Amino acid sequence: MNIASLSQIIATLAWLAAIGVLVLAVVRAARNRTLAKSGVLIMVFFLVAVLLTTVSSGLVFIQPEERGVVISAVAPKGYREEALEPGLRWVIPFAETVKLYPISMQTYTMSIAGQEGQIQGDDSIAARTADGQEIFVDASVIYQINPAEVVKVHINWQDRYTSDLVRAQARGIIRDAVSQFGVEEVVSSKRFELVEMIRENIAKKLSENGLMMQDFVLRNITFSPEYAQSVEQKQIAEQQAQQARFVIEQKKAEADQARETAKGQKDAAITKAEGEAQARLIQAQAEAEALQKIAEALKDRPELLTYQYISKIGPNVQVMLLPNNSPFLFPLPTVTPGATLPESTPGQ
Length: 348
Description:
Helix content is 53%, strand content 16%. The chain is α+β, with helices and mostly antiparallel strands. It has 3 domains: 3-101, no CATH class; 106-223, Tetrahydropterin Synthase, Chain A; 241-295. Strands 5, 6, 7 and 8 form a 4-stranded antiparallel sheet that branches. The protein has a two-stranded antiparallel ribbon with strand order 1-3. A hairpin with a 5-residue loop joins strand 6 (125-128) and strand 7 (134-145). Helix 4 (161-178) packs antiparallel against helix 6 (191-208).
């Protein structure tokens, strides 16, 4: 409780006391029991009450977050040109009154949700984009009264600065700004540019009228049901197209992988065949060189061939069949001409 409020309470109590003394004096006089010096008491109480009332009406306490506009019956313009600063201030009793204005931050919200804004119900801003689409904008304006221009605000707007200035200007500027962008730009590529344009224009208008805008918040953008449905269908189509492109890329990757696998198998087969052919060639060369060496060895010593032949015959072989036109590989015993073979004995 400040001193100004306390003085008003004391003045009220003084008036009650003065009235009480007056009533008591009247009652006692009616009963022929006159109150001693009642006239003096009544006069004193009334003078104290008037004095306290006068003092209390001249004292004004300004809170730190407030400024006071003095409406004066004695000032040439009907008001003081300077607003009252915070603290205990004095004005001319009964000739001047003070209108208090807040200079702290205030927020005005316009929203499609009825419980969020200052106005109950749908208070969103309906606007049309450059391509004719209707959208609904939820926004908040954070502002404050310029402490140096409180008197100007009082003269021009009084208590109507919120509804008649902030609300009206914000809604008009938002509609004008939205009309300069397409619907796709509003929600995606140029949303930041849109917000900056709205912020600058609102700040300019409020500044011209004694207010300072601290921030502008574009809270939400809602589409008409028809456009929202078309956007949803477009998104579904884009997702399907993207899925199809993904499948194509996947199939292409699989084909490339199969192609690379086949190429690798082909290269491996070629390498293997070349390796086998090289090995056979080396083997043939080795066999040819071996045969050459054998031929050279047999050239001077042909009996080695007979020896090798005999050494390959198994030790248990007793009869060997040869073709009748095949030459003997080793010399047979010489048969004496004229000799006769022994006759075989019958029964043997």
